[in-house]
Amino acid sequence: MSPVDNPNRELRSFQRPSPALVRQALLAQHERWVGTPYRLGGEGQAGIDCSALMQHVFNDSFSMDLPRTTDSQALQGSRIERSELRPGDLVFFRPPGPYNHVGVYVGDGYFLHASTSQGVILSEIDNVYWQRHYWQSRRPMEQTQLAQRAAWRQRG
Predict the structure, then answer these.
(1) Are 84 and 137 contacting, i.e. CB atoms less than 8 angstroms apart?
(2) Which of 13, 77, 90, 92 is 20 to 30 Å from the Cα of 84, by its Cα?
(3) Closest by alpha carbon to 10, among 151, 150, 144, 143?
(4) Which residues are catalytic?
């Protein structure tokens, strides 16, 4: 192997990082926020609501700005079918009460969100409750772009 091979491989991996980086970045955000209590209007470790959590996750992991409210986030990117979910896709719900709910799909049937009863957790998207209140899914950015941004954030 020549000394040039290694930098070229490094460059190629940066240009086409694995989609697994998206999942890894989201799980790292789960570790950072897990157990943070839910607080309507909250935006930090003392208490956070679902849309603020999505703002932090996308900004910190992918340098992507999302609007502040769930309803505004529900207009981002392109709408996709639930069967097309990939890590990094936003999932929206209309539970009982005045507010809609948002989380981010992390893969393997789980999504990260700020639960009103349990704080920041991973939940099964096929749970009966979440199935009943499912509204829509949106892809705010293609997974390859999210992976590139996650790789950039990890290196930077």
Answers:
(1) yes
(2) 13
(3) 151
(4) 50, 101, 113
